[in-house]
Task: inverse folding
């Protein structure tokens, strides 16, 4: 059931979930944590948030964040970079704020994890010990899932699903496309990281084409027969870009099984599609560091205790964000941020020998269909009787259909406000 929430209710819901997840400062017994070290791997929505909240909850705790990049480029709002609404610098964040908060930030790459010895090996040669390890490794691509789509093909058919150079590459290809061309998006099967979101991307690419190349089209070839907020997207496409965006689902021949990068051709179960720009988003798994450590199951995702996010196969290792199966929670930035706060409090409680509190979790996802047209969905989650993360009934829902242009413009402004708030929460 959808529940249309006024915006002040959405904000109150967000504040409630943050406060419930993070809790207050821990009691004086937390001074016993001064000899403990928590290592966090990954500087994105999960890792950066968890590192900061570990320090917030227990200022005497030693927290070390490992991130291989000097700066982190967010997937949220990267579709705006592709379509020319904003620049890459606006979604690029450094770690000085975390350092000022007392987090030790190391630019390096994890090459190995030894759960038995509680050690992390780095490419630079260091071996770090930990009392608790938090992994927020993001995603990896199942490159063998689409025949012909390998590392070399990514330069001809960029995925732009890890924000940064691929984002800039896809933008340059869009800008170079002739008027009358076809921009083809191959959307992956569930589950997958979102945002960036294939359907938001299609919308914002259409906005660019409408301004600069109005005879062009966007074609979505999908490995699914449905997608989140589909009704709201279709309503917006009809209103903003009539006839410009075509969606082909799995059952109608949208399942891309192979590609020919040289000819820019995508082959489905039934036919071939020639693209002028091809954005191929392959199926995904948990990040490579979790795969290499044997923390994933046969699905390619990591199973965790949903109350503490501790790995189901490796004690003292917690995994959050896109890399995990998290029950009803989607793989979104808000989900990772919410999980990180619950994880931080659980880690501190476990280090103190205490029982972690029962968590409340939140997701809110905004999507832009144009610079001034936004839609959203929100949900609150609890742990159900089976120990799984489950949606709380009637807590959240979709933004309303058939809303006015003024309402959609407000949603777009709220989306930008969400981004400013959550990145400030992550990086300080």
Result:
């Amino acid at each position: 059931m959808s529940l249309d929430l006024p915006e002040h209710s959405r904000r109150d819901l967000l504040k409630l979930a943050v406060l419930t997840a993070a809790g207050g400062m821990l009691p004086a017994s937390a001074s016993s944590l001064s000899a403990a070290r928590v290592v966090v791997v990954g500087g994105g929505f999960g890792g950066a948030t968890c590192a900061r909240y570990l320090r917030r909850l227990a200022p005497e705790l030693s927290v070390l964040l490992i991130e291989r990049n000097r700066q982190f480029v967010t997937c949220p709002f990267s579709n705006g970079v592709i379509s020319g609404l904003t620049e890459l610098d606006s979604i690029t964040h450094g770690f000085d704020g975390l350092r000022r908060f007392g987090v030790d930030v190391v630019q390096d790459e994890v090459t190995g994890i030894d759960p038995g010895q509680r050690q992390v090996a780095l490419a630079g040669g260091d071996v770090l010990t930990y009392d608790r390890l938090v992994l927020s490794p993001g995603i990896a691509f199942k490159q063998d899932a689409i025949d012909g789509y390998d590392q070399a093909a990514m330069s001809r058919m960029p995925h732009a699903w890890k924000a940064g150079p691929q984002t800039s590459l896809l933008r340059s290809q869009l800008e170079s496309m002739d008027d009358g061309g076809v921009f083809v998006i191959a959307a992956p099967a569930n589950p997958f990281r979102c945002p960036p979101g294939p359907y938001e991307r299609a919308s914002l690419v259409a906005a660019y084409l409408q301004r600069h190349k109005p005879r062009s089209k966007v074609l979505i070839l999908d490995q699914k027969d449905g997608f989140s907020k589909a009704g709201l997207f279709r309503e917006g496409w009809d209103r903003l870009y009539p006839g410009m965006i075509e969606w082909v689902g799995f059952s109608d021949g949208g399942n891309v099984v192979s590609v020919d990068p040289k000819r820019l051709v995508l082959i489905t179960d039934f036919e071939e599609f020639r693209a002028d720009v091809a954005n191929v988003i392959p199926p995904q798994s948990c990040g490579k560091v979790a795969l290499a450590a044997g923390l994933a199951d046969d699905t390619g995702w990591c199973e965790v205790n949903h109350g503490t996010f501790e790995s189901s196969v490796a004690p003292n290792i917690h995994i959050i964000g896109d890399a995990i199966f998290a029950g009803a929670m989607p793989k979104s930035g808000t989900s990772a941020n919410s999980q990180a706060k619950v994880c931080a409090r659980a880690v501190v409680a476990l280090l103190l020998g205490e029982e972690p509190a029962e968590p409340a979790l939140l997701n809110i996802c905004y999507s832009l269909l144009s610079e001034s047209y936004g839609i959203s969905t929100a949900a609150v989650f609890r742990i159900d009787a089976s120990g799984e993360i489950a949606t709380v009934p009637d807590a959240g829902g979709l933004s309303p259909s058939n809303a006015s242009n003024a309402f959609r413009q407000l949603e777009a402004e709220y989306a930008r406000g969400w981004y400013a708030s959550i990145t400030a929460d992550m990086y300080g």
